Structure formats: C-alpha cells, structure tokens
Amino acid sequence: MERISLIKAVKEDAEALKTSQVKAFLDDNKNKPDGVTMDMPPGCNSLEWNIDVIEKNEVYKIMYDTIPVGGFIIFSGKENCKIIGRVWILPEYQNRGIGKKAFDILFKMSKIKTSWYLETPDWAFRNHHFYESIGFVKTGETEFDNYCGWKEYKYQVFR
Asked: Domain with 40 in it: what CATH number?
C-alpha cells in the first residue's frame, strides 16, 4: 500500500476539504434507507464553515502519497478527550485500508492516553463494523431525530 499520512490543514486547504467532503457524503446517500434526509452533514459544503473549523479546531488532511483523499475534524472535549466530529474518505479510495492506517497515525500522534469519541448513524453498518474493528466500543445511542430520520450510535476508544 502506498504511504498514508496526516497533514494538519491550513486555511488554504478549506476548498479541497469542502470538495472532498461533499463528494464523500453525497456518495454515502446511496447507503441511506428510505425515509431519511439526504442532507449532508452541516457545513461540509460551505467554504466559510470549513475555514472557521480549520482555524478553531484540529483538522487533518488524509493523504494517499501526495493526493488528499479525506480528512478528520477533531474537537477537544474534557481533559484527555478528543471528539472526532467528522471523518471521511473519497469513495474511490475506500476499502483500501486507508481509514485504518489514518486512525493508527491519529492515535499515535497523541502524546498521552486519550479517550476518543465519535458518533455515526444507526443505518451506517459499514461504519459500525469499521470502528469496532479498530477498537471502538459502542457506548450508547442518541434519541431518534425526527428531522434526520435516524439516531446516532456513540462509540469510544481509549488509546
């Protein structure tokens, strides 16, 4: 497999990150069940939102050699807790081990033991399997969201 790396995003990366999110989340719509919203995650198609997120949080480009193929948006939680607010890989780069390697790198970047937290839709069975395969444990569920048409599964790992 080619070299996978994470590079901290800067303001100039906002357009590319926006574009890759839109492509990844539009493609994800094919996995959604009938009756749920086809809306993308908030802000992913806004350049201003992406710039703001980059300036205020940890945002990383997932690189496949020299090609940006996805990203992480990470928010700080309580002490020694990180919230993975968003992670995505372009559809044409999925199922190649890139996500697993990117998470390995992300976990190793943390100098101290950290509790990592994320949420994913109840209908996203591939996500459930993937997160559990890299050590995440399902810790709960959110209430059903009438607008979206689903609830979120909560996952956590300590690394």
From this structure: 3.40.630.30
Structurally, the chain folds into a number of domains equal to: 1
Q: What is the DSSP letter of 105?
A: H
Predicted TM-score (pTM) of the model is: 0.94
In a domain, 123, yes or no: no
Q: What is the pLDDT of residues 98-126, one digit of tens each?
A: 999 999 999 999 888 899 999 999 999 99
Domain that holds residue 22: 4-116
Beta-carbon count within 10 A of 108 CB: 10
* Residue 30, domain member (yes or no): yes
In terms of C-beta distances under 8 Å and separation of at least 24 residues, what long-range contacts does 31-40 make, across chains too? 31/123, 31/124, 31/126, 32/121, 32/123, 33/123, 33/149, 35/149, 36/123, 36/148, 36/149, 36/150, 37/147, 37/148, 37/149, 39/148
- C-alpha dist (Å) from residue 43 to 14, 25, 119, 158: 12, 12, 17, 28
